[in-house]
From TrEMBL:
Source domain of life: Bacteria
Organism of derivation: Oleiharenicola lentus
Protein name: SDR family oxidoreductase
Pfam families: NAD_binding_10 (PF13460)
NAD(P)-binding domain boundaries: 7-182
InterPro entries: NAD(P)-bd_dom (IPR016040), NAD(P)-bd_dom_sf (IPR036291), NmrA-type_oxidoreductase (IPR052718)
Length: 284
């Protein structure tokens, strides 16, 4: 059986949906903290098992009979290392034969403060002796297209990424990479640097919004502190607001750029064009 953690999250649901196109539902295990949120998956025949990243006993029980596991990184920044180590240890005790992990693009050399927990997790996976695949995911296009509606409402797209080129790919593209790893289409023991085929600036994103709406929405590049203050004002939690602003600042210096095209090779098709992601955002 194939299992994945965080199965009701944004990435997890896409992975389950794509897996259902290839394997029977009863061969999929959705590991979730709240089974009620996975009622729709259970209705489709997916095995739903309760386990959070902090419950070592529940994790081991949830992985009974699992051959291949996708560890989707926790969203709880600052707690990820310990949480992920719990999953790795449970996977080893349960006899999992392949562990795939969603890490961060160029984690071992990335200047992003997110990188350290990913590096620690990669090290724990390698130290465990488990056969593994590391998927180092770049930035999701949705990280920015989620701001399309506010941009349209406010007449400008805001950020702190300057002229930095960001190799964006849709969340569904990264889900397809995970499915490829889980279904034997990726090389065991390999670390994949995954990113979109085309790198864009936020000014180019703003231009695409303008093209599709027929209205002009310029990109306004702001100092980090000013951008963070705006994000705080609209209600984002402080850690996320400051994080987004600082990650943009690092993107300005190339932290989210990659031109290796490993993602499109792994999934067997080009990554989703920016125009399509903007079209979907404008529809929602």
């Amino acid at each position: 059986m194939i299992a994945l953690t965080a199965a009701t999250g944004q990435l997890g649901r896409l992975v389950v949906t794509q897996l259902l196109e290839q394997i029977p539902a009863n061969q999929i295990v959705a590991v979730v903290r709240n089974p009620a949120k996975a009622a729709d998956l259970a209705a489709r025949g997916v095995n739903v098992r309760r386990a959070g990243y902090t419950d070592a006993t529940a994790l081991e029980q949830a992985l009974v009979g699992v051959d291949r596991l996708l560890l989707i990184s926790s969203s709880e920044i600052g707690q990820r290392t310990a949480q992920h180590q719990n999953v790795v240890a449970a996977a080893k005790r349960a006899g999992v034969k392949l562990l795939t992990y969603t890490s961060l693009l160029h984690a071992d050399e990335s200047p992003l403060d997110l990188a350290s927990e990913h590096v620690a997790t990669e090290q724990a996976i390698k130290a465990s002796g488990l056969p593994h695949i590391i998927l180092r995911n770049g930035w999701y296009t949705e990280n920015y297209t989620a701001s399309v509606s506010p941009a349209v409402a406010n007449g400008a797209f805001l950020g702190s990424a300057g002229d930095g080129r960001i190799s964006l790919a849709a969340r569904a593209d990264y889900a397809a990479a995970a499915v490829a790893a889980l279904t034997g289409q990726a090389e065991t023991g390999r670390t994949y640097e995954l990113a979109g085929d085309t790198a864009v600036t936020l000014a180019e994103l703003a231009a695409e919004i303008s093209r599709q709406t027929g209205k002009t929405f310029p990109y306004r590049n702001l100092p980090v502190a000013e951008y963070a203050a705006i994000l705080l004002k609209i209600g984002l939690p402080p850690a996320l607001a400051h994080g987004l602003a600082h990650w943009d600042d690092e993107a300005a210096r190339g932290a989210l750029f990659d031109d290796g095209r490993e993602l499109s090779r792994l999934i067997g098709r080009p990554t989703t064009p920016l125009a399509e992601s903007v079209r979907q955002a404008l529809k929602s």
